[in-house]
Design brief:
24% strand, 22 strands, Gyrase A, domain 2, OB fold (Dihydrolipoamide Acetyltransferase, E2P), RNA-binding, single chain, 580 residues, BirA Bifunctional Protein, domain 2, 8-stranded mixed sheet, alpha+beta
Length: 580
RNA sequence: GGACCUGUGGUGCAGCUCGGAGUGCACGCCGCCCUGUCAAGGCGGAGGUCGCGGGUUCAAAUCCCGUCAGGUCCGCCA
């Protein structure tokens, strides 16, 4: 047992693996000095840290090994003297004695403390990310991520999927997310782009007969960053032929549940499912957080012919906030401001008290209206009922946003509640030319029952597109793809894309489809987000080794940076004056 | 493009409302003491353009304007 598969030419075992079973043996470990505790000329304790944990090493006071020095220590594994066992340390029963310490590398004092006791400013951490990564939390997060990747691969392999790599240097296909552009040296004035996703490539793989494809794929989007969005992110990308939406959801569910079990030790139950329309109606969002209730209620009928101006709208949505009557006026003003920032005209609130409703609007309500509000979600004294009146989708969205603000637990709390959201609309919104826009992407198959509406009432067309949502985070989305030229042509037409334009943009895909395209469907979900939730992190930067800041810079490398005049020349680039 | 929060020795904070000497706390660092510590302890020490620029004032870390950096969000993310 003195040797294991961790043994190398420089060490016998990992620090964390040294325990009572090795007592009496002479072993060599390597690592960083996490802490030095000095007790005079003839005694000092070194905590030596490697990825597995910490081991106490007893040395002579003359050994000059300071914080973060890299050392190689050979010593005898010994029981600690009675009364000096450290129960908080996994290796706390033992220590290395009679040690030879070899300094492999000296180290300056680190710019911040590497223990997890204090939060360090993220700017400082990112500037010295290589040090930050030594911290236990980052070690855990990135190893968790590796375990999730391993488990996803295993699940896809087990389901007969074949891992295929697709190009990073791809052809521009404007539409959708802004692309990162790569100038061509050999073709002056022409460009590659980095893929926003392997979408088209994987559909071509279907035409190519790889009827079950997956890839852990890096995707690049030149859009503004957020807590859950980096320029580059990683997806489990999946596509399969001769399948339905349910088949794909089954494949992905299995992979996600396997990964969840691997990461958390508990296999979640089945993944729930609701339609997009239900999600909007009950939760006011297409990515509902099922960890808490506070559902939206529809009072439109009650207020259909109301005298109250604030409620004169197509839809009145109400939500009970348990215990919310305690909220101060300034808190309620904050919430009102939040709703207004999103576009709401206002926010009505009604404290439920023993004497009835307490609200600036209360005296304008009819008895029926007051009763309806007091009855929302079985409101109790001490609750508050929030109401938004607007057109249907807006009323849902505004109140849904407040629901999240008021009810959403921290990422690290509560159960993991997965939900499939299905039947997304095929189109959403209207672009500058008056055409509807693709909600997912233009190759999304319409719902079979709604095909006739494409020309007559496009906004009503449901699609065979579906999202996977976990605790209010959109993990990913997918769809059944259009493999028939006639339907594709109708969808392009509805989108205002002429055949000519379609040929220009996606000609190579449409051309390929002429040679026998199998019906196919797929999905892709964000591994960064999944791992962040498993790790209880609010921010995906915490599960990425070298992330960018919100302004897209890398504080460690200084990227983005100038390139040399020679590079500029070879790439045939010229710069417009700044500000033009 | 916009809103809000933050910026004080290497690190984490307090000081800012109500202007009055770079004042304080904790950690780290350096030196000395200490043979059983493990958030070791004791004594001593070094370390600061208060993000940057301007303004108000007799006087600015503190008030005002601008700007930079980091963060959260809106827009954006087919």
């Amino acid at each position: 047992m003195s040797k294991n598969h961790e043994a190398t030419s420089l060490r016998d075992c990992l620090c964390g693996s040294v325990g009572p079973t090795l007592v009496g043996q002479r072993v060599t470990v390597c690592g960083w000095v996490a802490k030095r505790r000095e007790h005079g000329e003839h005694l000092a304790f070194l905590d030596v840290r490697d990825r597995s944990g910490i081991l106490q090493v007893v040395v002579d006071g003359s050994v000059d090994a300071r914080s973060e020095y890299v050392v190689r220590v050979t010593g005898v594994v010994s029981h600690r003297p009675e009364g000096t066992v450290n129960e908080r340390l996994a290796t706390g029963e033992v220590e290395l004695t009679e040690c030879d310490v070899e300094i492999l590398s000296a180290a300056e004092a680190p710019p911040f403390q590497l223990d997890d006791r204090v939060e360090i400013d993220e700017q400082v951490r990112l500037r010295h990310r290589f040090l930050d990564l030594r911290r236990e939390k980052m070690q855990y997060n990135l190893r968790l991520r590796a375990a999730v990747n391993r488990s996803l691969r295993a699940a896809m392999d087990a389901q007969g999927f074949c891992e295929v790599e697709t190009p990073l240097l791809w052809a521009p296909t404007p539409e959708g997310a802004r692309e990162f552009v790569v100038p061509s040296r050999l073709h002056p004035g022409e460009f590659y782009v980095l893929p926003q996703s392997p979408q088209i490539a994987k559909q071509l793989l279907m035409v190519g007969g790889f009827d079950r494809y997956y890839q852990i794929a890096r995707c690049m989007r030149d859009e503004d960053l957020r807590a859950d969005r980096q320029f580059e992110f990683t997806q489990l990308d999946v596509e399969a032929s001769f399948v339905t939406q349910d088949d794909v959801m089954g494949f992905v569910s299995r992979a996600v549940l396997d990964a969840a079990e691997e990461a958390t030790g508990v296999r979640p139950g089945t993944i729930e499912s609701m339609t997009w329309a239900q999600a909007l109606d009950l939760y006011g969002t297409d990515k509902p957080d099922l960890r808490f209730a506070m559902l939206l209620h529809d009072l439109s009928n009650v207020f259909a012919s109301t005298e109250v101006k604030a409620f004169a709208a197509a839809t009145v949505k109400a939500m009970r906030v348990p215990g919310g009557a305690a909220m101060t006026r300034s808190r309620l003003d904050q919430l009102t401001d939040q709703a207004k920032e999103l576009g709401a005209k206002g926010l009505a609130w009604f404290r439920v008290t023993a004497e009835g409703l307490d609200s600036p609007l209360a005296r304008f309500l009819s008895e029926t209206e007051a009763a309806a509000i007091a009855g929302v979600d079985d409101a109790q004294v001490g609750d508050i009922v929030l109401c938004v009146a607007d057109e249907y989708a807006n009323a849902c969205k505004f109140l849904g946003a407040l629901r999240v603000t008021l009810g959403s637990p921290p990422v690290s709390e509560g159960p993991h509640r997965y939900v499939w959201v299905t039947e997304f609309p095929l189109f959403e919104g209207i672009d500058e030319d008056g055409n509807p826009q693709a909600a997912h992407h233009p190759f999304t198959m319409p719902h079979p029952d709604d095909l006739d509406l494409i020309e007559t009432d496009p906004v009503k067309v449901r699609s065979q597109a579906y999202d996977l949502v976990l605790n209010g985070w959109e993990l990913g989305s997918g769809s059944v793809r259009i493999h028939r030229a006639d339907i594709q042509s109708r969808v392009f037409k509805a989108l205002g894309i002429t055949d000519e334009e379609a040929q220009g943009r996606f000609g190579f895909l449409l051309g390929a489809f002429r040679f026998g395209a199998p019906p196919h469907a797929g999905f892709a979900f964000g591994i960064d987000r999944l791992v962040a939730i498993f790790a209880g992190e609010e921010n995906i930067r915490e599960v990425i080794a070298f992330p960018k800041t919100q302004s897209g810079t890398d504080l460690m490398t200084g990227a983005p940076k100038d390139i040399t005049a020679r590079q500029i020349r070879e790439l045939h680039l010229k710069f417009a004056p700044k500000g033009s």
